[in-house]
THIF-type NAD/FAD binding fold domain-containing protein (Acinetobacter pseudolwoffii), 261 residues
Amino acid sequence: MSTFNMDAISPEFELTDAELHLYSRQILLDDWDIDAQERLKFSNVCIVGCGGIGCALAELLARAGVGKITLIDPDTIEMSNLQRQLAFTPQDLGLYKAEILAKRLGQINPNVQVEYINQALTAENAVSVIRHQDLVLDGCDQFATRYLVNQRCVELNVPLLSASAIGLQGQLFMLEGDSACYACLFPPENQADESLRCADSGVLATTPNVMASLQAHHALLYLGLGLMPLRQKLLLWDGLSFKQRILAFEKDTDCPICQAR
């Protein structure tokens, strides 16, 4: 794990004058205040996947003032990524996504502490990465990683916001406390097709960025105000029709992840 060029978060609880000015448009909101902004400042989040969703998600959270962001992704930047992954330019080809994204966040908001891990999330390192987070944000494009994140968040009682995007469609749901988990909603035995990825099925440039914005918005509501509108609910977004649905779902009594809890 590496830390990029960041000063430690100020030990004082109050926001600095510079931070008050930077976040003034949020603090002016009727439903937001300085207390909510300070809760953001002292929040730790982990973003799993620094691709189409992760790039926009991380930037929005950094601009909003989330205090510490941990990025994890083993991939390097390819030409095809530039179509939708907003943090990268042609000069970044061949470099690690997590590291380049961390540098960009440092340029955007030096008040935020950013750590990056140029490795895959695995059964061996997942606990150490997730254990001390206030919220995990999954934006990866591999089912195996998504189920691993879900399992570790359940075991460690860490809230999870999981987003996905493919083609012109996206999904978003939240796990928190004793709510139903991702495996309740999508049993692993029904999700064995790893070809359902952007690299194989395609994705419009805007789709992952729409889902990243929705995921970031929900994250801010949770971290700043303690709100959980998608707890045990699935948001479905259709970019062709512009229809959006929210479906409630229940625990699967046979889910091995929830039974292990």
About this structure: The domain at 45-248 is CATH 3.40.50.720 (Rossmann fold).
